Amino acid sequence: MTDPVRISIACHGGRGHTARLGEAVQAGASRVPHTEVTAVRVDRITDQEWHRLDDADAIIFGAPTYMGTASSAFHTFAEASARRWLTRRWQDKLAAGFTNSGSMAGDKAGTLGYFATFAAQHGMLWVNLGLPPGWNSSSGSEFDLNRLGFYQGAAAQSPVDDRTGTVHKSDLATAEHLGHRVAELTRTVVAGRRALES
């Protein structure tokens, strides 16, 4: 494969925990050879960054979970993507998502489900976490991958009174796994498409 696979992470960082997750997603994706990963802050997105999303082979969405869904900054970005929806610009790109909340469950499934629906409306192909739940048996540990037991994407929990952006080691590792999984699958899909075109 000559040209790199391009992955963009479109994230609203909130109080810092979700941005830290985004860094872990980026680290995981960057471990896959011939992968170019860029981060886009959706709360201050530029025209150039919109075009970067348009040119990406995969977009990974991230936002904190507030009141059972993604942050208002992410919703503003999603609504602004309507122009892309009209032209089907993101059709058949791969997509995935990650989120953080203050509680262990914290209705994060609402946010991940919202991301999946948003991606589906754009005609994108959703990549799930691909992990069984961790820490759900007496032999398990809070350091298991996917310790919070989500399937649709990477989920993290951070205390609401933490102002340092600290994220649990397992949650960071789970986010890194997601980034790596998306990059690997994107590489496979892109290689297949290029082979069919040749």
Automatic annotation (TrEMBL):
It comes from the Bacteria. Transmembrane segments: none annotated. InterPro entries: Flavoprotein-like_sf, FMN_Rdtase-like_dom. Residues 52-125 form the NADPH-dependent FMN reductase-like domain. PANTHER family: FLAVODOXIN-RELATED PROTEIN WRBA-RELATED (PTHR30546), FLAVOPROTEIN-LIKE PROTEIN YCP4-RELATED (PTHR30546:SF23). This is Flavodoxin family protein. The lineage of its organism: Bacteria, Bacillati, Actinomycetota, Actinomycetes, Kitasatosporales.
